[in-house]
Each structure stands twice: as structure tokens, then as C-alpha cells.
Amino acid sequence: MKLVKLTSADAQYFLNSTELMVLRSLLRKFPFTPRFPARVTRRRGDPQTAERKKLLNQALAEHRRQLKASARNLLADEKIHSQDNGHLLTLTSEDRETLLQVLNDIRVGCWHALGKPEAPQPHTAALSNQEIKWHGLMHFTAHFEAYLVEDGEAEEKADA
Amino acid sequence: MTLPTPDIGTQTKSRDELAPVYNVICWNDPVNLMTYVTHVFVKIFGWEKKKAEKHMMEVHEKGKSLLVREGAEKAEFYVHQLQKYRLQATMERAE
To answer: Which of A101, A111, A99 is nearest to A137 (CA)?
Structure first.
């Protein structure tokens, strides 16, 4: 994945065929993180905590629905221009934030599935096939996230 | 002539009760990438990258960082935004 063009409205990335295939596969896995109740505070005793927690979980559920709808269009045909040696993907600034959140949801979901280890990198070769898959997904999501974030930094400089 | 002494303690307590202040805190986790956390802080708070990195490093090294102090409504808004990016953020009533 490589940034090839940047304007204030959108960014264009070059992906080879394998990267595009992996990205499509990742997007199909969203939403991945299990629905667990989000915490709004770590302190007990605030009488408004229950209501705030309810509102937070409702907001997160709605956001998840919106992300799922948006994720379907992130790799739509009109956003991808195929070339001889790869593909050009055009993302608006909003698309890029959506893609980042979708990828990170998968990454966090895999981490939960692995039992929330302190060190996300595996220390042992004795992993089940499922655990290998989760580690692999975390690796792939980190690959794309890193490029999307670094390019975002470049955009800030370009806009300055 | 002596001016009346205002009861500062009572006034402060009353104001705090009406408008409590909350610390918005981001907690460390081993899964979110450091560059991702910095990016999220820049996006949500509109901070310069340097300030966002300082808070990100504080989260990483000290286990948490106090991001902003706000009234309940705004603190709640920030917690929602941060959690939408899957960061572990909470609002804690300030002492």
C-alpha cells in the first residue's frame, strides 16, 4: 500500500492485488468485536453512571450499524481503478476514518478473542489454527492502519 | 470599616454540586497502535501532533492520561468519540 496522490478532499492509494484481496477479506469480517458492555467510568457511586452507560452502549451500537453500512461502499467499484500492476483506491477523508475504525474493530476483536494478552505478539509456536488466524488478522489490520495513519500525518503537513 | 467575609467554602461546594467537573481519561491497552492513538487524539481534540504524542506516551508509560477536564455533557461526548475508535476512555468525577 502506498500513497500516490493527496488533495484536501481525498487520497489515492496504490495497492497490489494481494493487498486488495486481503483488504476486501478484512472488510467482510466487520463487525468482529463482540458486543460487550462499554464502561463509562471506573469509579463507583455516581448515581448517573447507569444512565450514561446505557446511552454509551446505544451510541456505540448505532455507530457500529453506520460503520457496517459505510464499510460496504469503501471498496466499491467506482473507488477502484485497476492498472496492469495493481489498483488505485480513492478514499475521501471520511472514508479513511471509517476504514481505520473498521480495521481497528477487527484488531481489537481478535485481541479479545485471544484472551486480551498483555503482549499481542505470540510467544509460543503452540497455537491453535484459530489463534494463528486471529494473530494473522491483527498483523494485517496493523499493516493497513499504519499506512492510513502515516498518510494522514502527511496530509496535515500538506494542508498546513 | 470591616467588609463582610465571604463564605468561600460554602460557595465553592454549591457550585461544584451544580456543575460537577469530570476528567476524561484514556487508559492503556496493549492492542491499539501508538500511531493510531496519536491520530485519534488529533482527530477528536484537534490537538497538534506533538501534544497528542505527549498524551499517547503518558498512556503508554504511566497506564493512563488525563486528556481534558469538562462538564458532564462534554466529557460524555468525548468518551463516546474515543470509544467509537475503540480506545479505553472513561469519565471520572474530579475531586
So the answer is: A111
Question: How does pLDDT run across A8-38, given as a tens digit for each residue?
Answer: 788 899 999 999 999 999 999 888 877 777 8
Q: Total domain count for chain B?
A: 1
Please state, in angstroms and rounded to a whole number, the distance separating the CA atoms of residues B93 and A95. Answer: 35
Nearest neighbour of B93 by CB, restricted to A46, A55, A146: A46
Please report residues of B whose CB lies closer than 8 A to that of A50: none
**Is the whole model's pTM more than 0.80, yes or no?**
yes
* Chain B residues within 8 Å of chain A (Cβ atoms): 30-33, 35-36, 38-39, 42-43, 49, 72, 76, 79-80, 83-86, 90-93
Overall number of domains in chain A: 1
Q: Which range of residues forms the domain containing residue A78?
A: 2-159
The answer, yes or no, to whether ipTM is higher than 0.90 is: no
Place of cell 471520572: B92
